[in-house]
Design brief:
single chain, 362 residues, alpha+beta, 5-stranded mixed β-sheet, 4-stranded antiparallel β-sheet, 13 helices, 20% strand
């Protein structure tokens, strides 16, 4: 029988991960505004240090725009092999505290720590121990959100960044969500946020004021999730292993991209993020699908299947690049790119058992 007591979930999010790794490995970069990504003249920012973010530099921003906003910006090429290696170090730390780990990317993951493996006494203490070990082992800082569900834990991890922690127990969940802008909610992208704003929905409290039928009329199948989220509810368990039909990644750009080189740079970053998930899942697949959303929000998907499994990131990106090249030029530019691998022959095991939830203080 399932225990009805709240789960204890931590969302760990590394601080400016790619840029922080570069600053760690090159002392000359410390304290300086750093962008990981394309060249100053062309390309796209994959990640920005906090020193660069002060000037408004953000990931997915065209490099030329980033330089305009921060003339002293230092560009460094991405080293995804290094980022993956550091990510594996961090994952090994997680595994010492729980088997229920759901990675979202190289630099963030959900952990269900309802079972207090090391008898630390609370979920907050576990999160503090994990953060301390990450800093000691990697020289990097991580922020953490601790709560009773995934939705709030992810929001909380962003609350005190960088190098911070935020704990939201069940009694505070609804009030915490009520005071936040809806554009911070997971699953509320720029388009949905604009639709909400047109309806006068700016905060979690505004969203909670509307009944489910109203939300269903305006947001369709997304309405049930939004209705629960506005009340601090999210019943999704942390899934350590999920049978996937496809694995991939996508990125929405702050500004539409039109030129071939920035588009290819952006696709390479998407492919790297996707391949990290594919590699982690031990998956093999034969179909690569490109998702492209134009500036007018029209979405195009193109797929190619091959006779043998796609064996590495280079092959995965090469197929994606061919699919992208066939669509160029794109009138008005591109606002989103995604790349997935499907026709999977070997994905990681079964869903994790989430039935037992021992009582552990927050």
């Amino acid at each position: 029988m399932s225990d009805t007591r709240p789960r204890k979930i931590i969302h760990v999010d590394m601080d400016a991960f790619y840029a922080s790794v570069e600053q760690r490995d090159d002392p000359a970069l410390r304290g300086r505004p750093v962008a990981v990504g394309g060249s100053r003249a062309r390309g796209v920012v994959a990640a920005a240090s906090y020193e660069a973010r002060v000037f408004g530099v953000r990931s997915a921003m065209p490099s030329v725009t980033a330089v305009r906003q921060c003339p002293d910006l230092v560009f460094v090429p991405p080293r995804f092999d290094v980022y993956r290696a550091v990510s594996q170090q961090i994952r090994a730390i997680f595994a010492d505290y729980t088997d229920l780990i759901e990675p979202l990317s190289l630099d963030e993951a959900y952990l269900d720590v309802s079972e207090d493996r090391h008898a630390l006494g609370s979920a907050q203490a576990i999160a503090a121990a994990i953060r301390a070990r990450i800093q000691a082992n990697t020289g990097l800082t991580a922020s953490a959100g601790v709560s009773y569900n995934k939705f709030i834990a992810k929001l909380a991890s962003d609350q005190n960044k960088p190098d911070g922690m935020c704990v939201i127990p069940p009694r505070r969940g609804a009030a915490f969500v009520a005071g936040l802008p809806v554009k911070r909610f997971y699953g509320v992208g720029p388009v949905t946020a604009r639709r909400m704003e047109a309806l006068g929905i700016l905060t979690g409290a505004d969203l909670a004021a509307h009944p489910l039928p109203f939300l269903q009329r305006h947001f369709g199948s997304h309405a049930t999730y939004l209705y629960g989220a506005a009340r601090g509810e999210d019943h999704r368990p942390v899934r350590a292993h999920r049978q996937a039909k496809s694995i991939g990644a996508e990125r929405t750009f702050e500004r539409d991209l039109s030129e071939p080189e920035p588009l290819h740079d952006a696709l390479a970053m998407v492919a790297a993020a996707a391949w990290a998930r594919i590699d982690r899942a031990g998956a093999q697949g034969r179909t690569v699908t490109l998702k492209l959303r134009r500036a007018d929000f029209a979405t195009i998907t193109r797929a190619r299947s091959v006779s043998r499994p796609v064996v590495d990131e280079a092959a995965f990106l090469a197929i994606g690049a061919d699919l992208l090249a066939a669509q160029l030029p794109v009138p008005g530019g591109v606002r989103l790119l995604g790349l997935t691998l499907s026709a999977l022959g070997d994905a990681a095991g079964n869903a994790a058992d989430d039935a037992v939830q021992p009582a552990l203080p927050f």
